[in-house]
Amino acid sequence: xxxxxxxPLTVTARITPLPTPGTPPAVYTATVYMNTHRDNFDGxxxxxxxxxxxxxxxxxxxxxxxxxxxxxxxxxxxxTAYTVGNRQRADDHGQTWPTDVRTVSVGDxxxxxxxxxxxxxxxxxxxxxxxxxxxxxxxxxxxxxxTSRR
Length: 150
Prior knowledge:
By secondary structure, the chain is mainly beta. The protein is 8% helix and 22% strand.
């Protein structure tokens, strides 16, 4: 014979601690690599050339997003970088997408560095993002002067 036993209900929750007053908020940084191949809208392929998006002065464009209810993961930061890259908003420091750089599209790569210093490279696909290895074929963005890296 079997008897029913009742168990108390349990709830599991992830509690994110509030930042300590005076400490800067955790930040995700996004760098966009534009696919420069003539068939760039066919999607990313590892051997095709990419160019880092830059500001009008030629310096690297880094988008910053504070960790929040809206941005909790690397993918959330990539999605927000995609929105900024399509001139729909600014990053959390007020930086907008340069008018002389084409918008972010399928086949481009968004590199996201999280507050834990973990880095992921995400290819923009028609349905979202797909993780890819770090790009190796980097070229200057067409129409810009290359910047020196030190």
